[in-house]
Design a protein that fits this description.
The protein is mostly beta strands. It has three helices and 19 strands. A hairpin with a 4-residue loop joins β18 and β19. InterPro entries: Ig-like_dom, Ig-like_dom_sf, Ig-like_fold, Ig_I-set, Ig_sub, Ig_sub2, Neural/epithelial_adhesion.
Length: 267
């Protein structure tokens, strides 16, 4: 599994090769960056870019009273911000339909960001539009979804369950709404892996490594989890390469999201 992930990330890095003085650079076996020509001192300057690598569906139907989710994956350098807007520009920032904005990290970072918009209530209109917007380095990419709102069939199972629905209406399952799918970052830097969540009660967030063991300062003082759920890794090392899983759990359910971290050693 690890070898397949490494091959996948190396292939992605090759496609998006950074530029040094206008030339492509090679990733050596020791994971350092070297210029294709030795006539000048290597200086890395990866071009800024952003693109949506997995857009939400073009259209989807929501039965009134039901919950739907829209997922959008954005790739970029520097690490892109991701935002959802409703209609002609209103930010989708109510309750469980959060903006899922993350701030850009260092200008040399490259990441794939997954953002999920949870819609557990439908509009009174017959249709609504939600747009995923990815931004990085002054560039923008977007993709929109049209949600058609329809009435539920009468005298169906949903109607029979209305008493139970009212009983549990204030409880909502735990869901991870934003995380990195993959992150490239330089060794020696401080890495922050986001894990934004929604749910009622508010989910508790923990992290585990590839072996399924809990991650925290008790295991390694370089690692700690912020109250908001992010995993912080100080002084990034080559040995830190691998998968990190965010676990969001509340009284209703549990949700997980995995991030693959790839340290890069600059010259």
């Amino acid at each position: 599994m690890m070898n397949l992930k490494i091959l996948y990330l190396l292939a992605m890095a090759a496609m998006l090769a950074p530029q040094i003085n206008g030339r492509a650079v090679d990733l050596d076996q020791d994971n350092s960056l070297s210029a294709s020509s030795s006539s000048s001192v290597p200086r890395m300057s990866r071009p800024n870019f952003v693109k949506i690598t997995s857009p939400p569906p073009v259209q989807i139907t929501q039965v009134r009273g039901s919950t739907i989710e829209l997922e959008c994956e954005v790739m970029g350098s520097p690490t892109p911000t991701v935002q959802w807007v409703h209609g002609s520009g209103q930010t989708a920032d109510w309750d469980d339909a959060t903006m899922n904005i993350i701030s850009e990290s260092s200008p040399t970072t490259m990441a794939r960001v997954v953002s999920r918009l949870v819609l557990d209530h439908s509009s009174h209109a017959s249709e609504s539009t939600y747009t995923c917007i990815g931004r990085s380095g002054g560039q923008m990419a977007l993709a929109s979804t049209t949600v058609y709102h329809v009435e539920a069939a009468r005298a169906n199972f949903t109607d029979l369950m209305k008493p139970a629905h009212h009983l549990f209406m204030h409880l909502k399952p735990a869901r991870v709404t934003l995380h990195f799918r993959a992150l490239f970052e330089y060794m020696g830097s401080t890495v922050i892996l986001p894990c934004k969540t929604v749910g009622r009660p508010l989910p508790e967030v923990t992290w585990k490594n590839e072996e399924g063991n809990a991650i925290g300062s008790m295991q390694d003082p370089r690692f700690h989890t912020l109250p908001t759920g992010e995993l912080v890794i100080n002084d990034l090392r080559w040995s830190d390469m691998g998968s990190y899983t965010c676990v969001a759990k509340n009284a209703i359910s549990k949700d997980e999201a995995e991030t693959f971290l790839y340290p890069i050693r600059p010259n």
